[in-house]
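SAMPLE LOG
Freezer: B-3
Tube label: C17
Construct: single chain, 463 aa
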Amino acid sequence: MGNAHPTIVFGELSGKVVAFKVGLLGLGTVGTGTVQLLQDRAGRHSLMQELEIYRVGVRSLDKPRAVNLPDGILTTDLQAIVSDPEVEIVVEVLGGLEPARSLIMEAIAHHKHVVTANKAVIARYGNEIFDAANAAGVYVMLEAAVGGGIPVIQPLKQTLGVNRIHAITGIVNGTTNYILTRMQAEGSSFDDVLADAQKLGYAEADPTADVDGLDAGDKIAILASLAYGGRIKLPDVYCEGIRQVSQTDIAYAQKLGFTIKLLAIAQRETPSASSAPSAPLLSVRVHPTLIPQSHPLASIHGVYNAILVEAEPLGQVMFFGPGAGAGATASAVVSDILNVAAVLKTGHLETESASLHPLLACTHQDYCAIAPMSELVTRFYARFLTKDHPGVIGKLGTCFGSHGVSLESVVQTGIHKHLAEIVVVTHNVREGDFHQALAEIRQLEAIDSIPSILRVLEEGSGE
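STRUCTURE (predicted):
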């Protein structure tokens, strides 16, 4: 087979070695889990016998490893892997934007199929990556990019493709779900739980991508693109994190029958149209949300992820499981390798006229139209600190009413430090109208501050 260095050969049929050569970029948590899974094939799909770890790219050859690989498999020359004519499938698990993006593009240019767990690269550069992949006649697979080991990418591309997707609502960031879960269970503050999460390794030293909703924004952009058959411009995705969620809000939410979760939501703004356009008007956003305690997502705790898909004619289906970790993510990575190997095994791509499998490749070219947040229709929770003036609730009601905001509930607590606390939950209202009402309310002499404004999810729906 022309190998210039040792390899791990996993399969042999009729005395002849059969192997699809894999070049692995990265041997961190996910890369190590991928190698471990490929080395432990008993009881798994028989096609795994035909996968071969050919080269593994690492930053340092001297670092201790949790896996044993023969001499010559490891290399620090990552470019040599993506350009090696022997390598058929390049697996990118480096993380970060660069050199991951450049290596993916170089692999495609050398007609390699790519498997990646990199949601940031796909969310930002998916347009150029998939254009290049389609032109080169290769696949870019990304099951591990969203939800760790939860199988959601391929179902959206295949099984659910016959449905009209009305909404995708997900808890897709384990760090923030862990923080909110502990804040609710223990009555702890955001800062205290974040510090513990960092000590336990659930949160990075710089937690910005997680707690400010950016990681979830990358993931919902990918899910929305698949669900609605159009590309998503990442700057169009509204992202709001959980830093402003206080223990006071969590306590109020519980009293009102809600729990607070950081939700990633993509929904069709015209779900009732029987002849939906190919690029529908969408709302794509990430924000902390009050959800009814009876909602399926309310029971998702800790670092777990869950993605609720609402579709016609299927109805509701929820994908739940570990959203990170070596084994979970490696499961998704190797499943993608297996999908590519299955296509290669059939010889489907060996002829010049062969086209990519339409249920595995990215086929859409147009961009989805994203509605501005001001047009979103939703319910709101707002908490006001007011001076001890008579008629404050009446004035609030007048301001809200003049902007078409109907109040579902109003709760007033006692006086503390000469300030009263008033919590309101609205009926559905256009977001732009709600914020106009708030602007007027802020001018009232009796209003000291508005510490919290959170959106409220309807029971059993995307919004």
